[in-house]
Design a protein that fits this description.
Length: about 350
């Protein structure tokens, strides 16, 4: 009897989504999505207004060091997905999952980053609900190798969305690590889709959807997993849930891209109107995105000297497009109400 579940029949709901993916693949300059990273074992503070800054490599006030490290580690793992997606010599192996686990969990030494769990484990599901018993740790190495072999050679005729969903389910059910199993499973799911060329790595993750539907996510996992690891159980509800998540996220990402292009066009039009240097578009666009801009940020992004960066930002402040916050070395600039209202008005035209 196989150790892994057999995928359910392919679903047709993804045909329209697949046909639109080519448009996204041809886009060469797409910003990385800032969807929420809601991971098992830790809880984000709400609201986490600094998330875009963390993903941009900055260190916002108000976010704990642990939160910054965990989100940055997840982003680093997704960067690795982008590299592997373009590697023609890449081959799936158990080490792939171990390496991804190390990347995503290295800020948490208690998770034993990059190492398989030892001993028995029970996964709790909340008050009054039956726990889940994954396989014994002695079975994990063989099961993980089987997942890797299946990813490389098994059911290749299946739709990538189905294969990716099944990889996620198998990993989270085998539960090979002390912590971070859900994160690694979701990253592997993204890597499966990215390797198939269905979408760019920035666009394949369903993490934002799971962040908004966490209860439903765990409910469908509980339904298909049962109380103990059993690959004979029907996985169809899980695959259907993943399809729904992907379709929803595809719609959201399309809308996000349309807004991003419109925002950039608006900033270019404003720069031309005000006879500003073209580099001003960078600061205006970033602040409208919600990223406060510092002298160091603008200097790095625009490739200019420090004094020039200061002059640029002060000019935008004097003209009313940016507001200054903080003082001394902590000075940063944010979109002014005037800029935000002008942007909103342009979208309503």
């Amino acid at each position: 009897m196989p150790c892994l579940r057999s995928p359910p029949p392919s679903f047709g709901a993804w045909r329209s989504l697949t046909s639109s993916a080519a448009t996204w693949r041809s886009t060469s300059a797409i910003r990385r999505s800032h969807g929420p990273v809601r991971c098992a074992g830790w809880r984000q503070p709400r609201p986490l207004s600094g998330r875009p800054q963390i993903l941009a490599g900055r260190h916002p006030a108000g976010a704990s060091d642990e939160t910054q490290r965990i989100i940055a580690a997840y982003a680093q793992a997704m960067d690795r997905v982008a590299v592997l997606a373009d590697d023609r010599r890449f081959q799936w192996s158990a080490q792939t999952m171990l390496d991804l686990h190390f990347l995503v969990c290295h800020p948490q030494p208690q998770a034993s980053p990059g190492r398989l769990r030892e001993g028995s484990m029970i996964v709790t599901r909340g008050l009054g609900r039956d726990p889940f018993r994954p396989p014994q740790s002695s079975e994990v190495p063989a099961l993980l190798n089987e997942v890797a072999t299946w990813l490389g050679k098994g059911d290749l005729a299946r739709h990538p969305v189905v294969r990716a969903a099944m990889a996620h389910l198998d990993l989270v059910s085998i539960h090979p690590f002390r912590d971070g199993n859900g994160r690694v499973a979701r990253i592997v799911q993204s890597l499966v889709l990215a390797k198939e060329g269905l979408l760019r790595p920035e666009l394949v993750s369903i993490e934002p959807y799971l962040g908004r539907h966490t209860r439903e996510y765990y409910a469908v996992l509980e339904e298909v997993q049962g109380q103990a690891f059993d690959p004979r159980r029907d996985a169809s509800p899980w695959v259907e849930f993943c399809i729904e998540a992907h379709v929803f996220e595809a719609t959201e990402r399309r809308r996000w891209l349309e807004i991003a292009y419109a925002r950039h066009d608006f900033c270019e039009e404003l720069v031309r109107e005000q006879a500003y240097p073209a580099r001003f578009v960078i600061a205006l666009d970033q602040t409208l995105l919600g990223l406060p801009v510092t002298n160091v940020d603008h200097r790095r992004e625009a490739g200019i000297a420090g004094p020039t960066a200061t002059q640029d930002l002060q000019r935008l402040r004097r003209d009313g497009w940016l507001d200054q916050e903080g003082g001394g070395r902590s000075i940063r600039y944010v979109a002014s109400r005037k800029l935000q209202e002008r942007w909103s008005a342009s979208r309503n035209r």
